[in-house]
Amino acid sequence: MMEFEDQLRGALGRQPAPADFARQVMAKAARMERQRIRPWHPWAAGGLAASLLVGCLGFASYEQRREMEQAREARGKVLQALAITSGKLRRIERRVEGIGQ
Amino acid sequence: MKRILLLTFGCAVMALAWQSPLKLDHLDRLAAKASESVNITLDASMLKLAAAFLSADDDEDGADIKKLVQGLKGIYVRSFEFKNTGEYTDADIESIRAQLRDPGWKKIVEVRSKVDGDADIYVKTDASKIGGLAIISAEPKELTVVSIEGTISVEDVKKLGGNFGIPKSVKKLEDKKPEEKK
Does the complex come out with an ipTM higher than 0.90? Predict the structure, then answer.
């Protein structure tokens, strides 16, 4: 029993740290810190750029479509306004001609 | 010095008055009484947009209309058709006529009829060119006011009054409207 206890004590006894233990710990800590701080993995940055590009293209397409709709609507209004103006001028012209006769 | 400043200010005010479109907003309330109404307000930016779209127009008249529109700064139309007579007042028209008494405007046609109503055509003159056109057509059951701002040649006005090339689709709509209402 005593022999077993001695073996156990020997196994669990305090061992002196290697000479460069502190340096290794500090180096690993610095490495971990660098990994933690790095904001984007390359694939994440690429994904974000692609998303932004798709978003910009989508917005540009939406804007273009909206502008086309506005232009089509404006064109319709111009034609309607000219048709009303033309109709009124013709009608007034006929009335003036009628008075003349 | 004071006189020069006053004169400059007066000229600026007159120039602004000459350029500003007719105020037709007071007519908008008539839309509630009308059986049919048209309210068109097209400023310079909208006309530019429309002109750009007219270039893509396949209709042979598109080029003529585009040419006309390019010289314009604004088109304002208020048109109301009523089921009954007396839905609008003389005051509604008088406020527009008052604006057209401005020295820049010249009345070129005046038609008065107790049966068919009144009609006036005004042009805004600036030296040799026409800078605007206004029409007031006040019939018993219909009131139409048109104000076109911008450079319109006499020839264009004649074309508008004659068989101006309004695209067939729109012309058909216009022809469908009963013109004789008594």
Answer: no
